[in-house]
Each structure stands twice: as C-alpha cells, then as structure tokens.
Design a protein that fits this description.
This protein has 7 helices and 4 strands, in the order αααααααββββ. The protein is an alpha+beta fold. The radius of gyration is 42 Å and the shape is elongated. The termini are far apart. About 22% of the residues have low confidence.
C-alpha cells in the first residue's frame, strides 16, 4: 500500500510536466506561423477578413505564451491553429480582390558616389615638415654650380636657419643652388 502511494506520488509530477520534458520545441512551426501572419497582413487580411485574422493572432499570442512557459505540446497546438487561420484569412482576402503589397519600404537604388572635388594641398606635406631637423625652415633660391655630373644650373632650396639665410641642395645632374630665402610661416601652435 505504501509502495503504491510512493510510486503514484513520483509519477504524478512527471505526468504534469511530461509535455515539456518529452516534447521537442516547435521552433519551425512557430517561425512558419509568424510568416503566415505576415503574409496575411501583406494582403490586408486584417481589414478584409478581420475575424479569422484576429483569431489567428490571438492563437499565436497564446502559442508564444505557452512556449515561454515551456509547455511545448500546448504551444504547438496553438501555433498550428494560428497558422491554419492565418492562411485562411490570407486566402479570403485574396479571394476578395486584394493584391499583395510588401510591408517593406520600396528599394531605391543607391547612385554611385560623386567624384571628389577636393583640391590637393599646396606646399609641403606635414610628413615632410616633420622629417626636417628642428630649427630649420625651407628657403628658396636660384644659383648655379658644378656637381658630379658636370656643370649646370638649377633652382635649389634646403634647410636654413630661422632667419632664412643660407642653405642649398645638390642635384644629381650637376648644379646646386641656394641663397637667401624667406622662412615659411607656420601656425602659432605648430612646431616642426
């Protein structure tokens, strides 16, 4: 007698929770039902077949709640009912002359970007200024001279002290130049 009560007391909770322990999650059916409801809404079933559409949405709401509570068998039953009602409401709306309209915004082709109209900077690049030794600024000048390739003339510049005098650059084809120049002006917070 005690043994029967013990077995019965152990089996009763298992029978109550059996649907969540031994039943698989109806993931695919829930997804299919959601798609059927979207398709019904695309053909305006909510206004052309409102009763079936309302019953379908209510059944799907109950299915979602049961799914959250881990009652998968009950959730599957409600989802199957909701899917059937959603498909019926979609069919009724199409039979009444509705046309399928997408709920997504219309796709507008994106034109290619416009070509750049930015002018390249004039003068030295910041990386070139940073490579120059401290205290120097560029100088400009013309001059002539001889180099390894012979004699020639050329314009030259180079590193000069801040007062802008001196400097020179050697050219590979012969020629070096440099003379007094004007120092380049930098913004007040810039230090080369």
């Amino acid at each position: 007698m005690i043994r029967k009560r013990l077995i019965l007391s152990l089996l009763t909770p298992l029978s109550l929770f059996g649907c969540s322990i031994f039943h698989e999650r109806p993931i695919q059916l829930m997804s299919d039902t959601a798609a059927a409801l979207r398709a019904a809404r695309e053909v305006s079933a909510d206004s052309l077949a409102p009763e079936k559409y309302r019953r379908a949405t209510e059944a799907f709401f109950k299915a979602q709640n049961e799914y959250r509570m881990k009652n998968f068998q009950i959730a599957e039953d409600f989802a199957a009912k909701a899917k059937r009602l959603a498909e019926e409401s979609e069919f009724d709306a199409l039979r009444q002359g509705s046309s399928r309209t997408s709920l997504l915004p219309p796709e507008v082709p994106v034109p290619p970007p416009e070509p750049s109209t930015i002018e390249p900077p004039v003068g030295e690049l910041a990386t070139e200024v940073m490579k120059r030794p401290a205290g120097g600024s560029p100088s400009t000048g013309t001059g002539g001279g001889s180099g390894p390739g012979g004699t020639g003339t050329g314009t030259g510049g180079g590193n000069a002290p801040n007062n802008g005098t001196g400097g020179g650059a050697s050219y590979p084809n012969g020629g070096s130049g440099g003379s007094t120049g004007t120092p380049q002006q930098f913004p007040p917070n810039f230090s080369p």
